[in-house]
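Suppose a colleague, Dr. K., hands you the sequence of a protein chain of 119 amino acids and asks what its three-dimensional shape might be. Before reaching for any lab equipment, you can write down a predicted structure in token form. Begin with the sequence itself:
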Amino acid sequence: MNNVEKALDKIGRGLLDGLKDAIKVAQVAEPFVDLGFPAVAGLYNSTVATIASVKTTAAAAIVPGASDLDNVIAATTAATPIIEAYAKSAGLTMPDQTTILKYMAAGLASLKLAAPPAS
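The predicted structure, expressed as tokens, is then:
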């Protein structure tokens, strides 16, 4: 793993840790949102539940030692049905899974192109 990959890995792990903490805070806030903002409480609570479910599902799909692309595909494939259900319930539209996977693969390829050659 070169220095850029190490830095990206460290950033990614930090974001996941931050997301874990943010989910906990958001879950603790649910009753306060219910009381203080009843008009948006349902949307807030379902969004928090969806994010927590996506994080858990995607993390469970990761295979240690698999390629980055394989893990992106696995996590995206596992989480997409949860996101689709949320989008439908919220009246949102989203691209199909094939389009999402193409964007994820392109993003991963871009990161790899930006990395300096390994010495």
